[in-house]
Amino acid sequence: MSGRRAPSLDLLFETLSQHERKFNRSFSLIPSENRLSPLARAAFLSDAFSRYFFDEHETFGRWSFEGGSIAGRIQQEIVVPLLAEFGRARFVNLHPVSGLTGMTLGLAAFGGPPGSAVLSVPVACGGHPDTGYVARKLGYEVHELPFEGWERLDLELLGEHVERLDPTLIYVDHATALLPLDLEAMIATVRRAAHRHVHVHVDTSHVNGLVWAGQLPNPLVCGADSYGGSTHKTFPGPHKAVLFTNDPDVAERLTLTAVNMISHHHLSSVVALGITLLEFRDCGGAAYAAQIIRNAQAFAHALAQRDVAVQGPPGAYTKTHQVWAATPTPSDAHGLASRLFRAGLVVNPYDPLPSLGGLGIRMGVNEPTRLGLREPDMDVLAEAYAAITLGGMAPEVVAPTVAELRAGFETAYCYPEPECSTALATLAAALEDVRVRHLLDLTAGNS
Question: What domain range includes position 335?
Answer without folding.
Answer: 283-407
